[in-house]
């Protein structure tokens, strides 16, 4: 959340997969819901399209063939970033493979 607020203060555009919205909302306390409403407005949330779902499925199959388990939510988030040409921002070190295998720019937040 600190990273998100920092980008907002710096007027850096930031977008979220609807999958990310679901994951964040599931972890919020009720008093944090007002922040969520402002943060995940419709202009910032990117829907999962058929193209994104197909790309994510292909990625999961490719990674399974390489012996790596790629969860569906992670695949959808990665595919959303690829489809829109965005940098992927994540704390998940298991996603580092996308930089080399899918030529996706990635920024770590710790």
What does this entry show, briefly?
The chain has 110 residues and is mainly alpha-helical. Helix content is 54%, strand content 9%. The chain has one domain (2-108): 3-Layer(aba) Sandwich (Rossmann fold).
What does this structure look like?
With 110 residues, the chain is mostly helical. It has a single domain, classed as Rossmann fold (3-Layer(aba) Sandwich). The chain has 6 helices and 4 strands, in the order αβααβααβαβ. The protein has a two-stranded parallel sheet. It has a two-stranded parallel ribbon with strand order 3-4. Helix 4 crosses helix 5. The model has no long low-confidence stretch (mean pLDDT 86).
Question: What coarse outline follows from CA principal-axis ratios?
Answer: globular
β-strand amount: 5-15%
Order of neighbouring strands in the sheet with most strands: 1-2
Alpha carbon gap, first and last residue: 11 Å
Radius of gyration: 14 Å
Number of strands: 4
Uncertain parts: none
H/I helix tally: 6
Can you identify the CATH class?
A: Alpha Beta
Report the CATH architecture. 3-Layer(aba) Sandwich
Primary descriptors:
single chain, 110 residues, mainly alpha, Rossmann fold, two-stranded parallel ribbon, two-stranded parallel sheet, 6 helices, globular
